[in-house]
Amino acid sequence: MLLMKRLQARLAGLSLLASVLAGCNGDVFIDEFMPGEPPSVSIGRAGETVTVPFEADNWGIYNLGSIYSSFRVGVTDLEGNALYLPLEEGQTGIVRIIDDFLDLEAVKRNGREVELTLRENLYDAPVELDLEVGNMYETKTIPLRVAPGSKYRVDSVAYDWSQFFTYDYKAEWVYSIRVDNTMGIDTIWPTIRPYEGAVRSVRFSIPGTVMPADYYTTILGNPLPEVVIPDVEAGQPVLRDTRAFFWLTDQDLPSDLDETFAARVPVPGGKYMEVGVYVTVENYTVPFTLHCSNPDNGRTRTFSGTLTSDRPYDYFYIRTDLTHTDE
């Protein structure tokens, strides 16, 4: 009799447990947070927000990113305090891609929707991303496609004239010629053209980590923008309308010298001489700050560094007597 009562009690317990488990399983399927295939989301411009609805609140955000690129992801609560992925069921917060060229955030204010807002996309093509959401029973991936936006534009360039430094005692070798007049009696006059191929060389440089060339073209566009650079007059900087591209490599500008200019050099009779041709160079350095803004979102960026200029402005030559050498 006692055995029978124990058996009946155990069967009743198993029946109750089965009912509970059945109820739990029933809740899992009944409270499916996103029935069917997840929607594909496209965001067409900076500042646009797309809201994705959910049919239940039993989900969290597991990840936001791309299989093609590695993006930095930041997670905070709605007040800006740091959190970590995943955002669990019932937990609210903001998951944000923070990249030099892309800014996208997914905001979970409640369990019924997620707000997707594109702040900035400077890439030249749409970016494909995945938002992974789910719970302990299932996960789903919402594909995102964000369109490219406008590049930053140069608003102004500021130079720190207090640190402008110039000197004009630099010389650069152009070329050399050798003239053999050892069999002659009279002086001969070979011609040199010191400004042939003369250019002004300028360079923008930014201290710190050297970024690849496409870093700046992704932000500012290709070709990179032109900016006004100073000239030198009586040892002082002046701004006219001389322009250079914002390249972080040497670029050649016109020197404003007459490339056809010719000078004659005397080589006396009985002499074998080498004529070295040089140009004198005006050099300056000045710190600069480039102020830029984005027309899509009003954001601003600055780039600071040093501008260097080397401009030939005169010439001289040096004659070396080789008459009594073994050459």
Structural description of this entry:
The chain is mainly β and 327 residues long. Helices cover 11% and strands 47% of the residues. It is built from two helices and 21 strands. Strands 10, 11, 13, 18, 20 and 21 form a six-stranded antiparallel β-sheet that branches. A hairpin with a 3-residue loop joins strand 5 and strand 6. The termini are far apart. Residues 1-30 have low confidence and may be disordered.
Features:
about 325 residues; mainly beta; 6-stranded antiparallel sheet; 21 strands; about 10% helix
The major beta sheet can be summarized as: 6 strands, antiparallel
Tell me, rounded to a whole number, the average pLDDT: 90
Q: Looking at the structure, what is the overall shape?
A: rod-shaped
The radius of gyration is 36 Å
Summing up helix and strand content along with how strands pair, one would put the structural category as mainly beta
Please bin the fraction of helical residues.
10-25%
Q: What count of helical segments does DSSP give?
A: 2
Residue ranges: pLDDT <50 for 5 or more in a row?
Answer: 1-30
How many extended strands? 21
Instruction: Spell the H/E element sequence.
Output: HEEEEEEEEEEEEEHEEEEEEEE
Distance between the termini: 128 Å
How large a portion of the residues is in β-strands, by DSSP E? over 45%
